[in-house]
Structure formats: structure tokens, C-alpha cells
Amino acid sequence: MSLSSILSADAIDGAIKDCQAPDSFCPKKFFQLCGLSKKSPQDVKKVFGILDNDASGFIEEEELKFFLQRFSPGARVLTDTETKAFLCAADDDSDGRIGADEFQAMVLS
Predict the structure, then answer these.
(1) InterPro entries from the xrefs (predicted)?
(2) Which domains does the chain have, with CATH numbers?
(3) Is 25 assigned to a binding site?
């Protein structure tokens, strides 16, 4: 399954363009722009599964760096500052990784 089967390619492109500059990525804004925040909890879980590159059940910091590239292969890598801020914003239990429920709560809240 690909992200474009859940989200429109135009919406993904727009969201990627919005955060092209280093340190301009805001997860909440990105989820709104790409349309993910309007999707069902089931669709959000499907997207989580795609983003969980190693299928560990969690999105770790190393996977977060390449978050934008999972949406669009030509996108930039997140900066260390953006990666840490994203992790802090979603990691409710402070275990250093984002679980499916934490991801869903961040996207849909």
C-alpha cells in the first residue's frame, strides 16, 4: 500500500512544498495540509504502518528523519531539531518512540 492510495498526490505535494525550508516542518500543519487529519482512524493506522519502515510497531527517531521522504522520495530529510520536536510532540509515554496510538492521537487531535 502506498500513501497516495490514502491521500491525494496534490495534497501531499502541497504539504511537502510548505515545509521545504529547513526547520519549517510542523507535524500538525503537515497533517492538515496533506489531508491526513481528516481521514478515519483506520486510514491513519494504515499510514502509520507505511511510516513504520522496520515494522517494529513504532516510529523511532531514525525513521522520523526520513518522514517527508516516505511521502515524496525527493523531499528533504528533517533536521535534528525538527526530528526531536516531532518526537517530543507525539511521544506521550516518553519512551523515545512513537506508537500507533500516539501517532493517531497526534494526527486526529
Answers:
(1) EF-hand-dom_pair, EF_Hand_1_Ca_BS, EF_hand_dom, Parvalbumin
(2) 7-108 (1.10.238.10)
(3) no
